[in-house]
From TrEMBL:
InterPro entries: NAD(P)-bd_dom_sf, Sc_DH/Rdtase_CS, SDR_fam. The keyword Oxidoreductase applies. This is Short chain dehydrogenase. The keyword Nucleotidyltransferase does not apply.
Length: 254
């Protein structure tokens, strides 16, 4: 199933960049939306032919401009990857900044909602339509001192299940990927945030994170990209409404 038209949010770095690389390598048309201008430019240099557009998923007007434009430039849409998300601060609920809470919800939940609702009419015209939502193990277990992030990731699971029921009759498959601790800059920032709250060292927090999973390593973002590619392929045609952990067998969250 090559030549699909794929839209990826927050695809200029991290997990999203690996997903963009994977779909491009499969011969698909790919358009990446992100707020990282430098990252978008670097991705365009790396992958000639990829489309990129600046889009802030906190800004409704920006979404309503960028999403339909990107889809029309590709000539339609087969795969939507909702990858945009932020971690928010590390803080107990009683001290959590309500402005920061709202920001996490705007990006992680409302951003995903708005991108998806605009994409659905185009996906309904595809014979191989698929939506992938990036949730987290935080949507399975919850995280201490990460209330907004955890709540948003649980919300994305509810959103995924609802979409799968609504869109099944149109042949549109909807699944969520739930990564654990993923190697890269974000997990290092998370560990530093945990250390600042606990008073322990970053290395101590890293060891605690490793102790929660049977495979003592961080998840390779390339493996998450491979899972996304599988879900969008014909091999995943019978999979919908599912929450797929990719977390090195995490037994609980910190």
């Amino acid at each position: 199933m090559s030549g699909r038209k794929v839209l990826i949010t927050a695809g200029a770095g991290g997990i999203g960049r690996e997903i963009a690389r994977a779909f491009a390598a499969a011969g698909d048309q790919v358009c990446v939306l992100d707020i990282d201008d430098a990252g978008l430019a670097a991705l365009a240099r790396e992958l000639p032919g990829i489309r990129t557009s600046r889009c802030d998923v906190c800004d409704l007007a920006d979404i309503e401009r960028a999403v339909p434009t990107a889809i029309r430039l590709m000539g339609g849409l087969d795969v939507l990857v909702n990858n945009a998300g932020i971690a928010g601060p590390t803080s107990p609920v009683e001290h959590y900044d309500p402005i920061a809470w709202d920001q996490v919800m705007r990006v992680n939940l409302s951003g995903t909602f708005n991108v998806t609702r605009l994409a659905i009419p185009f996906l309904k015209q595809s014979r191989q339509a698929c939506i992938i939502v990036m949730s987290s193990v935080a949507g399975r277990y919850g995280y201490s001192n990460r209330s907004a992030y955890s709540a948003s990731k649980w919300g994305l699971i509810g959103f995924t299940k609802t979409l799968s029921r609504e869109l099944g009759e149109d042949g549109i498959r909807v699944n969520a990927i739930l990564p654990g601790a993923v190697a890269g800059e974000r997990i290092e920032n998370v560990l530093a945030g945990r250390a600042s709250v606990s008073g322990r060292s970053v290395d101590d927090e890293r060891e605690t994170a490793m102790a929660a999973q049977s495979l003592r390593r961080f998840v390779d973002p390339k493996d998450i990209a491979a899972l996304a590619l599988f879900l969008a392929s014909d091999a995943g045609k019978s999979i919908s409404g599912q929450m797929l952990p990719i977390d090195n067998d995490m037994q609980y969250a910190g």
